[in-house]
Amino acid sequence: MKIVVLGAGYVGLTTGACLAELGHHLTCCDIDHARVAALRQAEIPIYEPGLAELVSAQMTAGRLEFSANAEDAVRSADAVFLAVGTPSDQGGGIDLSFVMAAAAGIAPHLRKQAVLIVKSTVVAGTAQQIKALVDKTRGNSDIPVGSNPEFLREGSAIGDFMHADRIVIGADDPRTEAVLREIYKPLVRTGIPLVSTRTVNAELIKYAANALLALKIGFINDVADLCEAVGGDVTAVADGIGRDSRIGPGFLAAGPGFGGSCFPKDTRAFASTGRQHGAPQPLIEALIDGNDRRKRSLAQRIIDATPDGGRVAILGTSFKANTDDVREAASLTIVPALLAAGLDVHAHDPQPGAAKRLLDGISWHETPIGAVRSADVTVILTEWDEYRSLEPNRLAAAMRGRTVLDFRNVLAGEKVASAGLHYHSLGRPS
Ligand code: UGA
Fold first, then answer.
1. Which residue intervals define the domain UDP-glucose/GDP-mannose dehydrogenase C-terminal in the entry (predicted)?
2. Is 262 annotated as catalytic?
3. What is the pTM of this model?
């Protein structure tokens, strides 16, 4: 099939490269000419394991190309995926202007056999809204609009695409459903279930899935607080509950609160949709509140553990491991709070590019040991493997103080303690 993806960001690029790998012919379009020029040289603008190799292999195979001229690219397309950004708006909802502008821009140039598919994360009813806009722009209702949400995690996006738990397709007409089934046939043949439903349900599935996963995290973080208060161990509790197949073991790792480009934005949008339609989502409202509060209270915990004007080493500024993304990362709340408290902040991250642009007033180091040298307190904020393998004796020798706050529970407490350090993790005995 000839497929065009509009938006060569993280979702568009991964989706485009993976669809090419399935055997389709892909053109990924972006309005950013510099980005398109770089992609044509197989230069990938984001850090995503395996993506650069996949893009370059698909380009060599002649199945993947890039263009800044979407109007031209869509003329011969069988399907066009919208994968442009949907940032939060002022009221916690999402700003659909990029999606709408992209749809309106290409609408007059689509062949009448084409289908338009919304890949961007959008609130319930958006596919139908886009359909109305496309109909109006064309003066015709020949182009159907479908929904095909993504469930890709940053850092493991290619694996998540190729070995998805399920593929969700939303279609309000048989043509869209048939096209989407055809596109995903190679994956369905490998045994991946395909859930076919109406567009509004597909849109809701995306939000409800992210909201429920975020609830699991918020819940285990509350359980971690309780464990600390009563002397329990959240790792043992998570293991025990996660073995119940109705609960499942995933997303039960206590941490400094969820971040990233999806959970915070999507939970806000879910709650906002509920308010707007008179179907409030009190669980999600409380979750959002608790998650924000958690980041602030962990900042206070670091401040309380550090002598006045002392030195703090932050290990990990990305919102999670294996990504350079810092959007809504705990570091963005915690580091400014430490600086405001007059502390001297030193940081390390294996992929610090974006964080360096966003976090002012701190000293960056090339190695974790460089960052912890002379620190009064060391804080682990991201679960990079590099931190899991930190040698406690080296840590103890480099630090000036003795306190290690492991907010990702990646170190073995006894080993750290036997190196003479005071070790505190989340929801586990000190
Ligand atoms: C998330 C979903 O997992 C994807 O399925 C979805 O497609 C994506 O959002 C999206 O909507 O596009 P992502 O934001 O890349 O993916 O990252 P996750 O691995 O889900 O982690 C989100 C946050 O939760 C991170 O801050 C992470 O550190 C935190 N987390 C995750 C925990 O604190 N504990 C856990 O057990 C799991």
1. 313-413
2. yes
3. 0.96
